[in-house]
Amino acid sequence: MTSYAALLRGIAPSNPQMTNDKLRGVFSGLGFTDVGSVVASGNIVFSAPETDVPALEDRIQQALNAELGIPGGTIIRSREELRALVDADPFPGLTHGRGTYLIATFFKATEAPTEIPDFDDPLARVVGIDRDARAVLAIVDNSTGKTPDFMAWLEKQYGKDITTRTWLTIQRILKKMG
């Protein structure tokens, strides 16, 4: 059995079809074990014998769409991939906060881009790309009244097969995975 995290795109916790209990129900119904949720924004941890991640992503997405009407994307990372990402310490010496909002944008594709075009906003900067985790790592300054539109910019550059999580959420997911 492999321990996975499903990072679901487009989850609105206020939507009654997208509650954690309903999301967990879809995963349990697919026969996965150790199903749990982390915060109310579409992070489901589970164990499965499958190792074909693209097939697993498709299977989960089809079930979410059929059972709950959720058309968004499903991006999966193994516990080992997330552990290696966190252990790499891509934000050395920084603490997640309003002025240093630490984020990772995960790509569904088999690999993340090797380069990211410049994002022309002093309130956001890319600090690196983790090729193994297929993630772009960035810092956003949310301490001013102006919020950079970094996520929309990434989506415009790379399409909708991406999803972003805060560094704190990634750490919580990893902790839940044991």
From TrEMBL:
Q: Which Pfam families match?
A: DUF1697 (PF08002)
Source domain of life is Bacteria
- InterPro entries, per this entry? DUF1697
Q: What is this protein called?
A: DUF1697 domain-containing protein
